[in-house]
Amino acid sequence: MKFALIGTGRIGKMHAEIIKTNPLSELVSLTDINEEEAKKVGYSLGVKVTSPEDIFNDPNVDAVLIASSTKTHIDYILQGTKAKKAVFCEKPISLNIEDVLDCQKKLGDYSNTIQVGFNRRFDPHHLSLKEAIQKGAIGKIEKVIITSRDPGLPPVDYLKGSGGIFNDMLIHDFDMAYHLLGEAPKKISSFGNALVDSSLKDFGDIDTAMVNMEMKSGALCHINASRRAVYGYDQRIEVFGEKGMLISQNPTKTTLEYFGRDQTYSKPPLFDFFIDRYEKAYHNQLEDFVQNSKGSPSMGCQFKDSVIVSKMAKAAADSYKQGSVVSFS
Ligand SMILES: NC(=O)c1ccc[n+]([C@@H]2O[C@H](COP(=O)([O-])OP(=O)(O)OC[C@H]3O[C@@H](n4cnc5c(N)ncnc54)[C@H](O)[C@@H]3O)[C@@H](O)[C@H]2O)c1
Questions:
Q1: pLDDT grade, residue 100 (50/70/90)?
Q2: Pocket test for ligand 1, best of 55, 75, 90 (most atoms within 8 A of CB)
Q3: Residue 329 has pLDDT above 90, yes or no
Q4: Atom of ligand 1 nearest to the CA of 75
Q5: What's the gap in Å between 289 CA and the centre of ligand 1?
Q6: Any idea what the Cα angle at residue 195 is, between residues 189 and 197, rounded to 5°?
Q7: Do 126 and 86 share a domain, yes or no?
Q8: Is residue 269's pLDDT more than 80?
Q9: Same structural domain for residues 135 and 203?
Q10: Gap from CA of 305 to ligand 1 centroid (Å)
Q11: What domain range is 84 assigned to?
């Protein structure tokens, strides 16, 4: 599959490397509004630097990978679809739910693949969890508990434009809940606070959140999130059902254990952050997208699913602001 990449920032560079290492994919061109950066990446990878217009008009391009800033996503999704390219877009589609719904309307009945980058679905540990659920290992699911803690607060300037903790950070957890349970919520209730840095409240954000959801089937889901965990990137999932429990634990960088005269302990470090922790997930995600674009069934987050996920983030943010339970439709 011949890819063009839009956006060569932090995540775009990573995707470029992944496309280059995938035997079924080839990176034929790339673009970024920051031409200097695009040229640097293009030169280092031996890939042509071009404009978005040329990408969409190029019959040699099968798929467009959109890794530019969030505010550009909708325009590029629409252009990619019009040009009949397979589209992979980083999450989220937009920070504004009205714009997401408008995009859905404008897309109408599209026939191309449009996947959104909720990569955690493809983490090998979480994949095993999903497979066990599908095989009926724990029967009917009654509870899902997701722990999602970042190692440290990002710069305040980043947070000011992030869309808030529910849209920027927990959106991955909403996708995970929706993916594991295979259903949307009926009700959402959120609490939150700025316990790490109280200045976040000055621009309406928080760094600590707890969300409870009652899903359509009656199953319950809890997400607990923090922008800071001093011991590392903490990503665990527990699923409890009528026949037992499944836990996807934190993988560690090493299996090192210490044995001394007075004590023995095992405290290998957790992964630093998402690019390391979910490295395999990003590779699996690209592989799935390529196969999906050729007609194979997919584990990925399709555009229509990501609309539901964005609605969940909005409902959770509303519940926190209003201090009440929000019904989900
Ligand atoms: N799935 C994940 O785990 C994950 C992780 C990080 C970021 N993201 C998402 O990826 C996207 C990019 O995030 P990032 O951290 O790489 O940001 P970044 O700021 O490092 O990179 C964004 C790039 O987009 C470019 N850009 C801006 N407007 C453009 C335009 N009109 N056309 C072409 N290029 C344009 C910028 O010049 C910049 O190089 C965001 O939507 C973010 O939410 C997803």
A1: very high
A2: 90
A3: no
A4: 31
A5: 19
A6: 125
A7: no
A8: no
A9: yes
A10: 21
A11: 2-90
